[in-house]
Design goal:
Layout lengths: L3 E5 L5 H15 L15 H4 L6 E7 L2 E10 L4 E9 L10 H15 L4 E6 L4 H9 L3 E2 L17 E6 L2
Parallel strand pairs: 4-5
Antiparallel strand pairs: 1-2, 2-3, 3-4, 5-7, 6-7
Length: about 160
């Protein structure tokens, strides 16, 4: 089996990150979103890799096959963003999503974060099961912190207490 490595993203990963995320959003899930509507993808270091945040990629054979970001939203809280895994690497055979999430949670705990929030869409049913299996609980939109960046496509929200 091909070895998968998880590492912090660097600037030269940008095009591969975009090439992974956009087709999943648009083709697999039918979300009419553009790169321009996601300026964070072109500014990962400045947006994610500050204060207690970070952004990771999963890589196999020198190719980015997964992503996950942690956005610092202040007050000891973070937002999980941009969790995507290439279709052939999903599921239990490779554990890519689980490894990405574990990396993010270990980092968040080390940084002293107390809670992680995330937003997703109703279409991502497998993602709902994944997050719930890993301890995330549904939360009402009105109960999100005021600093949480709600995306227009987000219809379902989750939170995980780390303490």
């Amino acid at each position: 089996m091909t070895e998968v490595t998880i590492r912090s993203a660097v600037t030269c990963d940008t095009e591969e990150i975009v090439a992974l995320i956009l087709p999943i959003q648009r083709e697999e899930f039918g979300i009419p979103i553009t790169r321009e509507a996601q300026p964070d993808l072109d500014n990962i270091a400045a947006i994610y890799q500050v204060r207690t945040g970070n952004f990771w990629v999963a890589e196999a054979n020198g190719v980015v096959i997964g992503t996950i970001g942690l956005l610092d939203i202040d007050h000891g809280e973070g937002a999980l963003r941009k969790m995507f895994v290439s279709a052939p690497w999903r599921g239990k055979h490779a554990f890519v999503a689980q490894r990405l999430l574990q990396e993010l949670l270990a980092w968040a705990r080390k940084q002293g974060l107390r809670r992680i929030f995330l937003g997703t869409t109703d279409q991502f049913v497998a993602a709902h099961r994944f997050y719930e299996k890993h301890g995330f609980l549904p939360v009402a939109k009105e109960d999100l912190p005021s600093t949480f960046p709600v995306m227009t496509v987000d219809t379902r929200f989750y939170a995980l207490n780390l303490d």
